[in-house]
Amino acid sequence: MGLIEIRKELDEIDRxxxxxxxxRMELVEEVAKDKLKSGKAVFDGRREEEKxxxxxxxxxxxxxxxxxxxxxxxxELMTLSRRRQVQYLKEAGRSNHFSFQKADKLIFPEKxxxxxxxxxxxxxxxxxxxxxxxxxxxxxxxxxxxxxxEEGRADYGIxxxxxxxxxxxxxxxxxxxxxxxxxxxxxxxxxxxxxxCCRVGEGLDHIKKVYSHPQALSQCRDFxxxxxxxxxxxxxxxxxxxxxxxxxxxxxxxxxxxKEAAEYYGLSxxxxxxxxxxxxxxxxxxxxxxxxTEDAYKLxxxxxxxxxxxxxxxxxxxxxxxxxxxxxxxxRPVGDGAFSYRFFIDVIGNxxxxxxxxxxxxxxxxxxxxxxxxxxxxEK
Length: 380
Hints:
It is found in: Cytoplasm. By secondary structure, this protein is α/β, with parallel strands linked by helices.
């Protein structure tokens, strides 16, 4: 049989497959109608596993690869069937229970914002883009920012979440997960430019140690590579390090901080731009209101995928099949001793978009443990 004849036969098989697939999806819709009446969940893991085992057993020849191909084919087929059921249930009015409300606008400046550190810290500088000085509340630790909002001492909080050069601020993602009432309402991208600062009158050749936040020290690793004899000492915050050096007058000591912090606390700037020029940090503004606006552009979610083969693939496929783009995916260990991971994903979309609703409804119906962290506008 030549190539032309083979292709003709394949075309005929494909035609029959399409017709059978259409008939199968019609029956899938009947299944969805029954589940709408009974209230049953779309995903039935036990039924699907039995089905996959049964179709794999239909492969008579002892060909492990063919059995795997058949199993993968039907696994994908059942994934598509579940998505069709979710679509039907949504159109029929089954509630998704996402419980977010659309708001006309967010009124930030009139509220109080908690930030970690002191005046001159990068969180302070980023927050000042929106909030006036008199509405900003300083706290010592990142966790204190969440507590201030949780306890009502502040309306919102701001935290650094990602750095363009060195990735996610892991502890803050872990904290965000530990405070389930917190909702991301906005993001700010702030350029980070670390300066090496010391007492007035000292030079670089006098510096024996440098204080700063661990993230700042890490972001200036090229400087420390050239000056390996300088000791790096972690501090709670870049601005706190600047203030403490200003008050102590310690000889031979310097800090990494913003130019503004150096000016606030009367320090001399030895070097500017110790971090890379393109260095920037993404900050989240969060509160307790489960709201989003018409111009919400990005959706942040966290999820733990089931411990099944292909689970993450299916989760990501829920967004792909709805034409949604992902701008970030990162993972953190759950800490359960079983090497499970929680994934943090940013999706480009709005909760009012039917494609977003379909994707999230699919996750919900398939029993994925997920949480909507927030749906917020693109920074202007």
